[in-house]
Specification:
Elements: H1 2-20, E1 26-29, H2 37-43, E2 50-54, E3 57-61, E4 63-65, E5 71-75, E6 81-85, E7 93-95, E8 101-104, E9 107-109, E10 113-118, E11 121-125, E12 128-130, E13 135-140, E14 143-146, E15 160-162, E16 166-171, E17 175-179, E18 182-184, E19 189-193, E20 198-202, E21 205-207, E22 211-215, E23 220-223, E24 249-253, E25 258-261, E26 270-274, E27 279-281, E28 291-298, E29 306-309, E30 314-317, E31 321-326, E32 330-335, E33 340-347, E34 351-360, E35 369-374
Parallel strand pairs: 1-2, 2-5, 3-6, 4-7, 5-8, 6-9, 7-10, 8-11, 9-12, 10-13, 11-14, 12-15, 13-16, 14-17, 15-18, 16-19, 17-20, 18-21, 19-22, 20-23, 22-24, 23-25, 24-26, 25-27
Antiparallel strand pairs: 28-29, 28-35, 29-30, 30-31, 31-32, 32-33, 33-34, 34-35
């Protein structure tokens, strides 16, 4: 049902766009070194316009997007476009229109929020958002797709959010799809979902934050859930660079929060910190395979060089993610696009050899094998 919500919400927005975008214009707007110049240019064009700012440029603004279905984008071929807060006590961009605003290509810095969807809807991709005083992106009473311009795409178009107390905040009966982004050095949390809100969270890298993800106050999150065979981007695992672990929990869950899916490669001082009101649906696996491995030898061409097996049944290679289950002598895995394989495990001193005996979806040939060394 949660997956349906993402695509149903996006379909409504795109349907509206198809009917209304033809009323707008495609125009270039310049900052001209004047505070408010970009806002004046946006206001002078009809709803549905595509507003492009050509770089290099630095715009000092607190923009408000009130017209429906605007596209605000940066042409960075010749240099980046910076949107800096003219007033640091306000968001750099506020989205309040009843349609949807597309925002892409900018370096957004300062302000309380980089982008604030306050009762508005937005599709936010390929931006760098940094040095905000509250959160990089706030979704409060609206819906946002963060990290892609179309949830059906094969791969994300990610944002990078750096050095804000919270990377992405979803609050007050809001929803979000958050996919493929890099969120770093956010001292409170990478992602916060609270106040009866919901988010699908997949394929993000969350490094050096407080808690990686926090869910509370009757809100729910779904992490990299399977199956996503039609839309594999949403089956990608969230992860943390092992050298930049989060200082708090990988997942903090309290006051009626609900977690579904797979923690995958998220790292913190503990995997999950949950009170008694938290609703969890996590798997655990005590197989000897849990941990990180490096390829030693194989008869498979282009086999991944690194493998990590997490206790919740998620796994990562250096090229892809997968789900797995196993015993001391068997292993079964499923890729994010539904290919499966099963095989037999044999063990040496710090080594494991896997020989595939059953496969489907042409993942690997029957009889192929890999030998791995524990890291």
């Amino acid at each position: 049902m949660l997956k349906g919500k993402i695509f149903a919400s996006f379909s409504v927005l795109v349907s509206s766009l198809c009917f209304l975008v033809s009323t707008g214009w495609a125009v270039n707007c310049a900052c001209n070194g004047k505070v408010g110049a970009l806002q004046a240019c946006i206001n002078s064009n009809p709803p549905g316009s595509t507003i492009t700012v050509v770089g290099p440029a630095t715009c000092y603004e607190n923009l408000t997007l009130v017209q429906d279905l605007d596209t605000l984008t940066a042409n960075t071929t010749s240099g980046k476009v910076v949107l800096a807060a003219a007033n640091s006590s306000m968001p750099v961009i506020s989205v309040v229109g009843t349609g949807v605003s597309f925002i892409s290509g900018f370096t957004i810095q300062g302000g309380t929020f980089g982008i604030d969807c306050d009762l508005g809807n937005a599709i936010i991709f390929q931006n760098t958002i940094q040095n905000c005083s509250v959160a990089g992106i706030n979704v409060g009473g609206g819906y946002a797709t963060i990290g892609t311009n179309n949830p059906k795409n094969a791969a994300p178009s990610p944002n990078t959010i750096i050095n804000c107390p919270v990377g992405v905040q979803v609050t007050v009966h809001s929803g979000a799809g958050i996919v493929g982004n890099t969120i770093k050095s956010c001292k409170t949390a990478g992602i916060v979902v609270d106040s009866a809100s919901q988010a699908d969270i997949a394929g993000n890298t969350i490094d050096g934050c407080g808690n990686a993800i926090s869910v509370s106050e009757n809100s729910s999150i779904r992490l990299s859930d399977r199956p996503y065979q039609t839309f594999p981007m949403w089956g990608s695992l969230n992860k943390t660079d092992a050298t930049l672990k989060n200082t708090g929990a990988a997942i903090l869950c309290s006051t009626g929060g609900c977690i579904r899916g797979y923690a995958g490669g998220l790292l913190g001082s503990t995997l999950i910190s949950a009170d008694t009101t938290c609703i969890q649906n996590f798997k655990t696996n005590s197989s000897q395979l849990v941990g990180s491995w490096a390829l030693v030898s194989t008869n498979i061409s282009n086999a991944p060089k690194k493998y990590t097996f997490y206790p919740d049944g998620a796994g990562l290679t250096d090229t892809d993610s997968f789900m797995w289950s196993g015993t001391a002598t068997t292993l079964s895995l499923t890729t994010k696009i539904g290919k499966t394989a099963s095989g037999a495990l044999t063990w040496g001193a710090g080594y494991a050899t896997l020989k595939w005996t059953i496969t489907s979806g042409t993942l690997v040939p029957v009889g192929s094998w890999i030998t791995m060394k524990r890291q």
